Amino acid sequence: MSFSAAAEVGDPISPQGAPAPLHVENTLWKLAKKIINFIVNIFLGIFSSNSTPILASPTPILASPAPILALPAPILASHSPILASHSPILASHSPILASHSPILASPAPILASPYRHISSKIQDILDTHQYGDGSPGCCGLLQLQSFARAKKYNDIRSHHYDWWMFPIDSARSKGERFELSNDHFRELATNHQAFMRNYKEGIKIVLEAWGWDLDSQTDISSRPSNKGWFGSLHQRWDGYGIRLVKMANSLQLFIDNSSGDQQRELQEVYKSVRQFYKAVVLPKHHSREVVCRDFSLVTHYCKN
Asked: Which residues contact 260 (CB under 8 A, 6 or more apart)?
């Protein structure tokens, strides 16, 4: 049999190096695939078997701090005598700490202190005495001074300002905002000299609008220069008795709560107010020329 015939029959290898038959090639290919699959499975098995312990390993690692954290207990216990030894020292400071409790709690009494209340009310009086309270038809000393310079005496008489220009000790239509106690009057008379000068200046301006000179204690309403159209008077008593009452009452309260030169100056102002009552208010009221409203009150505060 020739070598060519053997190749045709299906010999695995041709002695001349000819290609192997087709069925032999398929068999080798299947064997190679099995080997590759086997190797791949081995590697997959290794990775899959190793991954579980590796992934699972953090649990013990994470759990390990529990014993570590638990270690300080004996350490803290070992220090308990040291901590206990300090308890007398801490206890010895308790009176000191306790002594500070009134200091820490002191803001509440300070807020409720009458001195703070006095200060806030006095500040309100100082402000409104100068500028008024902003209500329509109301004004303070600065506006009154402007009216006086312009000789607008009717504006002085028609505006409202008695509450803060002549503060007294009883509640009125403005409520208790401008109601002062003896402590307030004493504080103003003693420690607020600028206010006291302004206070007397306000009285002087209002009396001028009523036709009275505070310093000379004389009626100036009859001066020729005071006459306007049809014989009307620019400066005149208008019968506004309650304003005169507040002025006289306020002066008495300041006099009672002041001393020294301040008291003597206020007494001179009050003497002039009382003289205005006797020289102008009484005669005009009795003659019915100008009826004084609240005449009994005016008499009560101005007769002495």
From this structure: none
